[in-house]
Amino acid sequence: MAPRQPLSSLYCHHATAGNVRPRHLYEQIYCARGDMENRIKECQMDLFSDRTSSHTIRANQLRLWFSAAAYVLLTALQRLALGQTSLETATCGTIRARLLKIATRVTLSVRRIVLSMPDMFPCQHEFALAHARLRRLRQAI
């Protein structure tokens, strides 16, 4: 099935600019625009960047900064530690729900922090693999 050709000002602008094929225009430019809109929606829905209900602009701006920082950290985690796992192409909300929002007992001692996860934690393999990859990355630095 051939991709549909968008009829928009984007097509008219690039068609008059030179020898741009409609297929290249659709797949490389138009679809990339849709992908960016999906990333913005993901940040709004999964990381609550659309919640600007505070009374001051500074508080709302700080909330947006936190959402942007969380998005950057989660995408870096996905790129660096979750490759070749079931969470490799997951959204930020899925990563947050499966790896970060888990019931864990935290025990502090003088030398270490011990995290005790439940035996029935469904993403144990992904969590252990991401942890090992991040430790290797840290040691390489």
Features:
141 residues; mainly alpha; 5 helices; 2 strands; extended
In short:
The chain is mainly alpha-helical and 141 residues long. The chain has helices spanning 9-17, 22-46, 57-81, 92-100, 124-140, and strands at residues 105-108, 113-116.
Total of helices? 5
Estimated radius of gyration: 21 Å
Strand fraction equals 5-15%
Largest sheet, described in full? 2 strands, antiparallel
Overall mean pLDDT: 82
Gap between N and C termini: 48 Å
Q: Can you tell me about this structure?
A:
The chain has helices spanning 9-17, 22-46, 57-81, 92-100, 124-140; strands at 105-108, 113-116. The protein has a two-stranded antiparallel sheet with strand order 1-2. Helix 2 crosses helix 4. It is built from five helices and two strands; from the N terminus they run ααααββα. Helix content is 60%, strand content 6%. With 141 residues, it is mainly α.
SSE inventory with pairings:
Layout: H1 9-17, H2 22-46, H3 57-81, H4 92-100, E1 105-108, E2 113-116, H5 124-140
Antiparallel strand pairs: 1-2
Helix pairs in contact: 2-4
